[in-house]
Amino acid sequence: AQSVTQPDIHITVSEGASLELRCNYSYGATPYLFWYVQSPGQGLQLLLKYFSGDTLVQGIKGFEAEFKRSQSSFNLRKPSVHWSDAAEYFCAVYSGAGSYQLTFGKGTKLSVIP
Amino acid sequence: GAGVSQSPSNKVTEKGKDVELRCDPISGHTALYWYRQSLGQGLEFLIYFQGNSAPDKSGLPSDRFSAERTGGSVSTLTIQRTQQEDSAVYLCASSFSWELFFGEGSRLTVL
User: Fold this and answer.
1) Which residues of A fall within a CB distance of 8 Å from B4?
2) Which residues contact B3 (CB under 8 A, 6 or more apart)?
């Protein structure tokens, strides 16, 4: 079965600093990959997705992610973090092959220091 | 409304009672998912409905959990004989493609 690992439980960055959140997946073929964000007291919102093609994908709120097949990774990045980016971030994967389960990582909580 | 609606937003119950959680998906979305979110555990898949196909129940943790979707729209998740370990936020999502749209969840507390 597919699995998703987010190694960092909690990350703290200063406002204006760059950000990278790590995500590794376990699946043989090319999966469909997603990043969702959950702001305090709100539902999950899709930031970006990767299906195929260009391995660098752009999302909302200035986020981007890069798919690296050789490392089974799909890391999320933002060049300059804003205080409003403080939230919990979840990486997720569909394995395809007829499965419609979207498997989520355990999340990375981002704190931003003003 | 335009989004996924879940009710109740908060539910406190006593151990051993049955609870029902409701999800009203976005109109036209054929797929509906239930997830459970516990502190520090991420999102745990429970069940998936797609149109008139048989649901994927592979994530239901025990036979105390069941779900139905009537008329391809509203879904109800039922937990029988609740246990304290059932305390969590239950999230519903709907989809018409690969993107899931989530509701704000139902927070269940079992005393």
Assistant:
1) 43
2) A43, B26, B101, B103
